[in-house]
Specification:
With 389 residues, the protein is α/β, with parallel strands linked by helices. It has two domains: 134 residues, Response regulator (Rossmann fold), CATH 3.40.50.2300; 226 residues, 4-Layer Sandwich (Phosphatase 2c, domain 1), CATH 3.60.40.10. It contains eleven helices and 15 strands. The protein starts with a strand and ends with a strand.
Length: 389
């Protein structure tokens, strides 16, 4: 620490020149800056004038206000960056003990050894420096937490949260939910009407966690929506978005995506699965996986070509999409929730209302992994095809 202000509080007037002589090199080099007071009241006044004082060397026996009373007043300031070293007569253990109980950091005995004084000053300043670093780290942590809260609010704001989102449409219904593992997550979902007949929908899972993943998530979601709204095919959309993400990707980040377009008149779903978990179609008493397109993740290989496939929904069918935070949840026995458990759960709840399927699925996963901290975002989206009435 440079230019540390040290206040010496003692009624002996000849102490000031001795201190200045002893530490003349440190004063000249701007390491120490000494302030002098002759009693406790004067010390408090100078502390108000110069709050940057970090170390006080105080005698006990002084007029106006003694050192023990000064310690009590200093303790009331609750300033962890201010330390006091008390000076007392050799053998005056009662006063020294009282001083330590009132918050003195250390003590010296008279006659003062200036070598011992320098060692004590350096030791005390080292402690102050540790406290200062700790306070800086604490302030930085608070700032990060505030930033994370802001990021969480922004992230939640860009995800659809009003259901039903298209109350005027009777051909389908949709519901989705995302439970972030951390303050902010890397999962996302979205849906939008491309035109009067076609519903675009997407679910994605960004690699990594935290703020970086949240930013990449927001970029990915925005690019897919903006590109999808142009009305191009699902594979053309993925080709274009992938090229953009490869150009913008940092720290080797990538995203798995399932992007589909539902024709609300015919029930045909055109889709691309870019390295994502295969969704399920719940039809009648059957739960079956949507066929993979064998395409890779977005954001890694710029020249890759994506392929689209089609699936047919009939009125009453439900399409359920999810991220791996569902199937890769662990319980206290180190068991995975897994696809089989999810499929069995869906078979027993496929006739339930759409919103209940999503909410109860999340509840089932969280109850399964009770006692284990959530390690990944949990996201589900369901679309029920009703068809023209």
């Amino acid at each position: 620490m440079k230019n540390v202000k040290i206040m010496v509080v003692d009624d002996e007037v000849d102490l000031e020149p001795l201190v200045r002589q002893k530490f003349r090199r440190q004063i000249r080099d701007g390491i120490y800056d000494f302030v002098f007071a002759h009693h406790g009241l004067e010390a408090l006044a100078k502390l108000i004038e110069q709050p940057e004082i970090r170390l006080i060397l105080s005698d006990i026996n002084m007029p106006e206000m003694d050192g023990l009373t000064l310690l009590t007043r200093l303790k009331e300031l609750k300033n962890p960056m201010l330390k006091t070293v008390i000076v007392s007569a050799y053998g005056d253990m009662e006063n020294i003990r009282t001083a330590m109980n009132r918050g003195a950091f250390d003590f010296l005995t008279k006659p003062i050894s200036f070598d011992d004084l320098e060692i004590t000053i350096n030791k005390t300043l080292d402690e102050i420096n540790i406290i200062w670093q700790s306070m800086q780290e604490h302030d930085q942590l608070i700032s990060i937490q505030q930033d994370l809260q802001t990021a969480r609010e922004i992230q939640q704001a860009i995800l659809p949260k009003v259901f039903p989102p298209f109350p005027e449409r009777s051909e389908f219904s949709i519901f989705a939910s995302m439970i972030a593992a951390k303050e902010v997550g890397g999962d996302f979902f979205d849906f939008f009407m491309i035109d009067n007949e076609r519903l675009g929908f997407v679910i994605g899972d960004v690699s990594g966690k935290g703020v970086t993943a949240a930013i990449f998530m927001a970029v990915s979601r925005t690019l897919i929506r903006a590109t999808g709204l142009k009305g191009i095919s699902t594979n053309e959309c993925m080709n274009y978005v992938n090229r953009l993400l490869c150009n913008e990707s940092v720290s080797c980040m990538f995203v798995t995506v399932f992007y589909g377009i539902l024709n609300t008149t015919t029930g045909v779903v055109e889709y691309v699965n870019a390295g994502h978990n295969p969704p399920y179609i719940l039809s009648g008493n059957e739960v079956r996986k949507v066929e993979m397109t064998n395409d890779t993740i977005l954001g890694c290989l710029e020249d890759v070509i994506y392929h689209s496939k089609k699936a047919q929904l009939i009125p009453g069918d439900m399409l359920l999409l999810y991220t791996d935070g569902v199937t890769e949840a662990f319980n206290i026995h180190d068991e995975l929730y897994g696809e089989e458990r999810l499929e069995n759960y869906l078979k027993s709840h496929m006739d339930h209302p759409l919103e209940d399927v999503i909410k109860d699925s999340i509840k089932d996963v969280t109850e399964f992994s009770s006692g284990i901290p959530q390690s990944d975002d949990i996201t589900l989206m369901a679309i029920k095809y009703i068809g023209r009435v």
